[in-house]
Amino acid sequence: xxxxxxxxxxxxxxxxxxxxxxxxxxxxxxxxxxxxxxxxxxxxxxxxxxxxxxxxxxxxxxxxxxxxxxxxxxxxxxxxxxxxxxxxxxxxxxxxxxxxxxxxxxxxxxxxxxxxxxxxxxxxxxxxxxxxxxxxxxxxxxxxxxxxxxxxxxxxxxxxxxxxxxxxxxxxxxxxxxxxxxxxxxxxxxxxxxxxxxxxxxxxxxxxxxxxxxxxxxxxxxxxxxxxxxxxxx
Length: 234
Known about the structure:
- With 234 residues, the protein is an alpha/beta fold.
- The protein has a single domain, classed as Alpha-Beta Barrel (TIM Barrel).
- It is built from 8 helices and 9 strands.
- Strands 3, 4, 5, 7 and 8 form a 5-stranded parallel beta sheet that branches. A two-stranded antiparallel sheet has the order 1-2.
- The radius of gyration is 17 Å and the shape is globular.
């Protein structure tokens, strides 16, 4: 069974940020992450999908980059190896409902079930933990209570619409600033291409890529259940 390692890393990161020199170690124990630098979080929705998610994981691993994946529950069992790999390689894994159902247009019990089924699937595969929620379309009903933080985004290149790697990459580069949460979908080959180009370009500009959970903690934000986060600043 794969164990979640992100919370342990965060505690170590916070402690390291208080040490002389202000340096911290990422989850894989590789190159040090300086405190006070430019951070950004890449997030991916609607996966996992064989042929695209695995290629993305290959590219991220080659670059030493961590991302956050919000998974569709009904796709987890058939792609268990990909999900386990995400966890093993230090990516944050979250919940994107069972069937990509809007949570603002259904009854509260139905919305809760959409979330709970995916949470159960993740816990069965990876073990217990807090699997943060990204509601489909970024919308939830006020009548539904959630026991985990919710994650939206502030940079949306509409990759699902154009399916054009050049346009998607440029839209991200034109709109990304420190502490941005970027939305992409790892089910499209063009989005994978764009994501890896963006990583290379933004790293050349001095950005560091972290998970959403890490991004919030780096900004001193304590994530709260039921609160929707759009940037690393809260």
